[in-house]
Amino acid sequence: MEKASAPPTRFFKMAGSGNDFILIDNRSGQFDADRSRGLVKSACRRKFSVGADGLIFIENDPEVDFKWRFFNADGSEAEMCGNGARCAARFAHLNGIVSGTRMAFRTLAGIIRAEMRDNRVKVQMTTPHSLALDFCLDVEGRPFSMHFINSGVPHAVTFVDDEAALEATDVFKVGRLLRYHSHFQPAGTNVNFVLVRNAHRMAIRTYERGVEDETLACGTGSIASALVAAARGLVKSPVEMQTRSGECLTIYFDAKSGSAGVEFSEVFLEGDAKVVYEGQLWNETLEQ
């Protein structure tokens, strides 16, 4: 006779421009997010479980509509994720956690404000910081002209010359080497390879820290790349960013020159947040 086990966990599988996430309403405190690394890794394991780039717990907050705990597929907790933020906002809207189309929620990067627009969501991001332009890093004897900004999480940006160069980039190999480069230690960084097509259009490929691979889209990476390009005078708001999934994210921002260089404010990210399916996750999978 099989032994009784805890009831299955209800979840949504959602996708934002090619990034996929597992979302769980944890307002009852069913899971201890501080001890969830194994659970996250099991649930996000592709082929053996649901599979996802990350897992999001929605929890109570005394000051704003809710807070999230966001975990990458490897179990590490991240401060922010733009595509995940849009999915979290729509999840909260669909499940009655918030009323109306506007909301605010807490992340490790700060308070995020979101507005529903059907299955698209526009989120106001935290103020970016730590902009650094035009420094050179060596990777296996090859010099890379790099830029950096923290758009909620750390992002390194390097530009390519044309479509062919973007396609030919070995994002996994080069991205991984740059992600672990001594210049970015101890936290490491996400790495973006970007092409400027014109003053309002760009294309991007991203190696994501925590996923440890190229992903089909990265919201904070798209923001970081647009802001770096703007700081170099290459683009102006709004910027349409074509992700690897083929879908576009729209980045809005205000930029002004100050004594410390270019300063950004009123940064918004807009894109889709689609429900893939709703299901129940059995504990026998989480216990693997």
List the main descriptive attributes of the protein structure presented here:
single chain, 288 residues, alpha+beta, Diaminopimelate Epimerase, Chain A, domain 1, 2 domains, 17-stranded mixed beta sheet
Report on the architecture of this protein.
This protein has 288 residues and is of the alpha+beta class. It folds into two domains: 9-119 and 274-286, Diaminopimelate Epimerase, Chain A, domain 1, CATH 3.10.310; 129-271, Diaminopimelate Epimerase, Chain A, domain 1, CATH 3.10.310. The chain has six helices and 17 strands. It has helices at 37-44, 82-94, 163-168, 171-179, 219-231, 283-286, and strands spanning 9-16, 19-25, 54-59, 66-72, 102-107, 110-117, 120-124, 129-139, 142-150, 154-159, 190-198, 201-208, 213-215, 239-242, 248-258, 261-272, 274-281. The protein has a 17-stranded mixed beta sheet that branches. A hairpin with a 2-residue loop joins β1 (9-16) and β2. The mean pLDDT is 94.
